[in-house]
Design goal:
Layout lengths: L2 H15 L17 E6 L4 E6 L9 H13 L6 E6 L12 H6 L4
Parallel strand pairs: 2-3
Antiparallel strand pairs: 1-2
Length: 106
C-alpha cells in the first residue's frame, strides 16, 4: 500500500471516528481526544489505540464495538483492532477547540 493510499484511508478512518459518540457526551470520540493512535498496516489492518473519559465507563464495550464496525466498513480496511489504553490518562485538554466549545469549557 503506497503512502498516498494510506493517507486517503486514514482520512476516511478519521471521518468514521467522528461518527462515534459516547452515549453520555454530545461530542464524538475523535474530537474528545480519546483516539491516541491510528496505525494502518500495509495489509489493510487498522490498529487503533484509544482511551475513555473514565476507566469505569459503562459504555466502553458499546463504543469499542461501534468503532470496530465503522472502521471495518472503510474501503481498503481488512480488519480493525481496537486497543483500550489508559496511559496517558485522558483529560479535557486533549479535546479539540470545537469539543471544548460544545461542552462549555471555553
Amino acid at each position: 500500500m503506497d503512502t498516498e493510499t494510506k493517507l486517503h484511508i486514514e482520512e476516511k478512518i478519521v471521518e468514521m471516528l467522528k461518527t462515534v459518540y459516547d452515549p453520555e457526551i454530545p461530542v464524538n470520540v475523535y474530537d474528545l481526544g480519546l483516539i491516541y493512535k491510528i496505525d494502518l498496516q500495509d495489509d489493510g489492518e487498522a490498529i487503533i489505540d484509544m482511551t475513555l473519559t473514565a476507566p469505569n465507563c459503562p459504555a466502553a464495550d458499546f463504543i469499542m464495538e461501534d468503532i470496530r464496525q465503522k472502521i471495518e466498513s472503510v474501503e481498503g480496511i481488512t480488519s480493525a483492532q481496537i486497543n483500550l489504553v489508559f496511559e496517558p490518562e485522558w483529560d479535557k485538554d486533549m479535546m479539540t477547540e470545537e469539543a471544548k466549545l460544545e461542552l462549555g469549557f471555553l
